[in-house]
Amino acid sequence: MSTEITMPKLSDTMTEGRLIAWKKSVGDWVERGDIIAEVETDKANMELEAFSAGVLLEIRVKSGEMVPVGTVIGIVGDAGEKVAEGVGAQPAQAAAETRQPPTAEPSPAEAAVGVVPERIMEPPEETAAAASIAEGGEKASPLVRRLAREKGIDLAQVTASGPEGRILQEDLERYQEARGARSEERGEGEKALVSAGAIQPLSRMRAAIARTVSDAWQSIPHFTVTVAIDMGEAENVYRELKGAGAMVSLNDVIIKAAAMVLQKFPLANASFAADGIVLHDEVNIGFAVSLDDGLLVPVIKGCGGLSLMEIAARSRELIERARGGTIAEADISGGTFSVSNLGMFGVEEFSAIIHPPQGAILAVGAVQDEAVVKGGQVVAARVMRATLSADHRLIDGAYAARFMAELKRVLENPVAMLV
């Protein structure tokens, strides 16, 4: 019996993927777990493994093609088996066949945030404005619709080349090139007053970052709370650990402190969904890692149950994978809270954009020498400013203030982190 190979959904934001190369040819024998193809997601290049053994009977998507998630890209079956023309799962059905570990099928609310929540709190009644309205009758992924809006393209004018008349990103590019050629024919009179410089095409990573932050900024009502934290004791602990040979960074100390505080403030570790507030049972903290062409946010899973040394080891491992290009989708998904640290660049303070479907992110500045008043005396202190960006649909100002006050208390009294 034949088995369909589909384009997997490898991240919460992935709507389509590019097949970079096939590692097997038609007629080759495939064992379960063999690498059969390499695909490009919106975040990284990933290897696609076979779910079942058999002969690769058909290749339906060529190398270099971009197709929607769930599209059948190949067929594996018995030698000599005939595959009927047109057989293949629809994208909506096939999307379930991904290379993710088997899990219980999530409800629509769970799928919206990419996790299986333990508890859901009912939110206030939603207004009619919150309802989603489809744009036109053209078949296109959310990504393509967004790009069309940004570029001012009417999808009804675009010739589709995808499966079942679906408009692909390449169709938009061809339409835009044709439109640009027509504009050039209008003559010099319509040239811009200021000539533009060279246009650098967006990498897949930069395009994914652009989509994510744009959507987050437009859809999440952000507000920020900043506190100044005396990091003198935390730095002492950090230096003592380093002196004892421990491979730990100050950012690891901050992540550990955040994990402790998040267990006391569950709304800061929650996600807003259409039908409720998703309270995550685990504390999974993402931390930003800068790369040459953008950034990745690896996630340390189960931070609430990890020691400082365990967090440091996991952080170091994820940074090496991210910068070495070997990070897996599982390592950059499933986050419930994030930390972004620009202190190493001398940044005093900043606010960060929340990473959906998370409800908050902590922005950390540099630790600097400042004069402060203690016991009526002006003394030197090592001060760090930290800013919480929070989703106002989940968190009110007073709750965020209490969260930051507790974070300040933990970092200024770091002994508890070593227990």
UniProtKB/TrEMBL annotation:
One of its GO terms (biological process) is pyruvate decarboxylation to acetyl-CoA. Residues 139-176 form the Peripheral subunit-binding (PSBD) domain. Residues 2-77 form the Lipoyl-binding domain. It comes from the Bacteria. Residues 87-112 are annotated as: Disordered. Keywords: Acyltransferase, Lipoyl, Transferase. One of its GO terms (cellular component) is pyruvate dehydrogenase complex. GO terms for molecular function: acyltransferase activity. Belongs to the 2-oxoacid dehydrogenase family. This is Dihydrolipoamide acetyltransferase component of pyruvate dehydrogenase complex. It comes from Geotalea uraniireducens (strain Rf4) (Geobacter uraniireducens).
